[in-house]
């Protein structure tokens, strides 16, 4: 069936489930498995033509983990852990997608997933106490509970450049990279955006394009990923040590294997400080900041000291001092934006066929049929890549018309920022769990316990013969205030980025992810459950 053929079902034909899940990405797949274990009938509706979510859509060249592969995979099945071999320390998108397909097959999840099913609306029926979802093709399904596993970063954002649709060449967004790929070999390519996606993409495509123009608004602090294949001995060690690896991840603030040095950078001599910076610089992945002196990730002297170390590393790698200074970040604190990991990014700007354009100095005025026109010049291009990010967290919820009690929409309710209790529920939207809001850091490590908690909450409702669970308005008010208060203090709220909605014109500013560290979030959720789901109304 094509998406244009409308489905129509009689009331009797509408499938009824205990739980409807929107999405079959990392959290949707796991939620499906967990719900089955708990004896629920559950069904996932997925917009893509395949499973994998983020790892299905973000198939741009160079896309890969920058969490260690073996810390990112699921932990729920010892069998899965032992039989899946991650081939690289930081695995690329093709393998990550294969992994999630392997999981879907191994646990026979596909029979409860409807692909090519973009959910357009989800409406709470107050007479029946059930949610009804309607897909783009008109297909309907109903469930007692609704779980939005729609991802934190899945609603792509393309700025409203004048003339956007007039471009005669090929254009695409990194987060919706065509499945058939984009032919870039020998082409003149322009990339707008130098966040984690842009940095990965630019480094990879610079190897094949005839000319590359990078339109940068804000220079970022990027650090070497130092990816490498996993040899057999390391593979054996990893497999023997999964319990320790996951235990460590559970203990750290962002659920990574890296642990902060409890010393202040300023408590040691400048020589010792530099020795530590240089030692960590040689390590792979996020060790460079998450294993560093604890205060490099706090506003202040240590942060600026480490930022300057980073800036000098960039200067050492770029031949032209003018270009080097354009690539050196000066407008935000180190760590206040997500740090991209790179594999030769800065050296790209030493290539003769690569041009860096500062669009803060000379903003993009419009897209033309032939390319991009800035205040200073026009650039003729065959391909434009928008690496311009995402309408984070609320963007993917807003793509579904979600209506709760009294017909109120979640979009209206969140117009000035999300109002939730624990990031998982919003008052007036009973039995709806917005699972994409509450986790950040090493995603799967934080998301697995969250899915466990949410699914157990549903089992509690069922086993105690309630039919509804909803956040109390008071608990929601207090949590929302806590997010505002705690959020204002943390480093990643200090810059203009997706973490606080500042990348989207007109979006209310406020922390969109969990306000507490992963261990604190888990402890708070556990306390709520232990106290009979305190803060929730049960009927
Ligand atoms: P992003 O970090 O939001 O970066 C978007 C880029 O587009 C920024 O450089 C931004 O500039 C630029 N931009 C936006 N609007 C613009 C405009 N009107 N004119 C010029 N430039 C504009 O998005 P992203 O790179 O897709 O990354 C988003 C998140 O996805 C990351 O923070 C990370 O959490 C995740 N991610 C993870 C991985 C991984 O794990 N390996 C890989 C990729 C992405 P400004 O900085 O000036 O706003």
Structure, described:
By secondary structure, the chain is of the alpha/beta class. It has a domain at 3-51 and 109-155 and 392-538: FAD/NAD(P)-binding domain. Helices cover 32% and strands 16% of the residues. It is built from 18 helices and 20 strands. The strands form five sheets. Strands 1, 2, 3, 4, 5, 6, 17 and 18 form an eight-stranded mixed beta sheet that branches. Strands 7-16-8-9-12 form a five-stranded parallel beta sheet, with helices on one face. A three-stranded antiparallel beta sheet has the order 13-14-15, with no helix packed on it. Strand 5 and strand 6 (140-148) form a beta hairpin. The radius of gyration is 24 Å and the shape is globular. 46% of the residues are buried. Bound molecules: NADP nicotinamide-adenine-dinucleotide phosphate.
Topology summary:
Elements: E1 15-22, H1 26-37, E2 42-45, H2 54-57, H3 69-72, H4 78-83, H5 93-106, E3 113-114, E4 119-125, E5 130-135, E6 140-148, E7 170-173, E8 188-192, H6 196-205, E9 211-216, E10 223-224, H7 232-240, H8 242-251, H9 270-281, H10 287-290, H11 301-317, H12 321-327, E11 341-342, H13 345-348, E12 354-358, E13 364-368, E14 371-374, E15 378-380, E16 383-386, H14 394-398, E17 401-403, H15 410-413, E18 432-433, H16 443-463, E19 469-471, H17 473-489, H18 518-530, E20 536-538
Parallel strand pairs: 1-2, 1-6, 2-3, 4-17, 6-18, 7-16, 8-9, 8-16, 9-12, 10-11
Antiparallel strand pairs: 4-5, 5-6, 13-14, 14-15, 19-20
This protein binds NADP nicotinamide-adenine-dinucleotide phosphate.
């Amino acid at each position: 069936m094509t998406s244009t053929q409308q489905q129509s079902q009689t009331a009797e034909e509408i499938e009824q489930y205990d739980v409807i899940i929107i999405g079959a990405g990392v959290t949707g797949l796991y939620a499906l498995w967990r719900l089955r274990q708990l004896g629920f009938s559950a069904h996932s509706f997925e917009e893509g033509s395949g499973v994998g979510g983020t790892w299905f859509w973000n198939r741009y060249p160079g896309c890969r983990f920058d969490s260690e592969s073996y810390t990112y995979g699921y932990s729920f099945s010892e069998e899965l852990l032992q039989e899946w071999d991650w081939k690289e320390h930081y695995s690329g998108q093709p393998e990550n997608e294969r992994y999630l397909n392997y999981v879907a097959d191994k646990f026979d999840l596909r029979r409860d997933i409807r692909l090519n099913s973009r959910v357009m609306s989800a409406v709470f029926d107050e007479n029946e106490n059930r949610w009804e979802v309607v897909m783009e093709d008109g297909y309907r399904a109903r469930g007692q509970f609704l779980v939005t596993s729609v991802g934190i970063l899945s609603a792509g954002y393309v700025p409203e450049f004048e003339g956007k649709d007039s471009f005669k060449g090929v254009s695409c967004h990194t987060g919706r990279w065509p499945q058939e790929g984009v032919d870039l070999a020998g082409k003149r390519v322009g990339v707008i955006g130098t966040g984690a996606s842009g940095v990965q993409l630019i480094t990879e495509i610079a190897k094949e394009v005839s000319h590359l123009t990078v339109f940068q608004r804000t220079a970022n602090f990027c650090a070497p990923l130092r990816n490498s294949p996993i040899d057999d001995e390391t593979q054996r060690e990893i497999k023997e040590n999964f319990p320790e690896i996951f235990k460590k991840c559970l203990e750290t603030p962002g659920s990574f294997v890296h642990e902060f040095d409890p010393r202040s950078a300023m408590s040691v001599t400048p020589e010792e400080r530099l020795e530590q910076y240089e030692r960590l610089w040689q390590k792979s992945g996020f060790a460079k900041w998450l294993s560093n002196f604890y205060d490099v990730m706090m506003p202040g002297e240590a942060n600026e000291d480490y930022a300057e170390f980073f800036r000098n590393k960039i200067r050492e790698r770029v031949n032209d001092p003018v270009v080097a200074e354009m690539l050196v970040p000066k407008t935000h604190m180190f760590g206040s934006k997500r740090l991209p990991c790179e594999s030769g990014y800065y050296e790209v700007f030493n290539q003769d066929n690569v041009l860096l354009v500062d669009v803060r100095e000379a903003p993009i005025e419009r897209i033309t049929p032939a390319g991009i026109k800035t205040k200073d010049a026009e650039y003729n291009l065959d391909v434009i890549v928008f690496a311009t990010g995402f309408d984070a967290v609320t963007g993917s919820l807003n793509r579904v018309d979600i209506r709760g009690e009294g017909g109120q929409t979640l979009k209206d309710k969140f117009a000035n920022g999300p109002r939730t209790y624990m990031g998982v529920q919003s008052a007036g939207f009973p039995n709806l769990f917005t699972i994409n809001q509450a986790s950040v850091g090493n995603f799967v490590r934080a998301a697995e316990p969250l899915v466990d908690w949410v699914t157990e909450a549903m089992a509690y409702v069922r086993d105690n013969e309630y039919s509804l669970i909803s956040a109390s308005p008071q608990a929601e008010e207090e949590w929302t205030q806590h997010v505002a208060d705690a959020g204002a203090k943390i480093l990643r709220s200090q810059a203009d980025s997706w973490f606080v909605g500042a990348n989207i014109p007109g979006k209310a500013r406020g922390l969109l992810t969990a306000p507490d560290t992963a261990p604190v979030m888990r402890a708070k959720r556990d306390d709520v459950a232990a106290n009979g789901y305190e803060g929730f109304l049960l009927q």
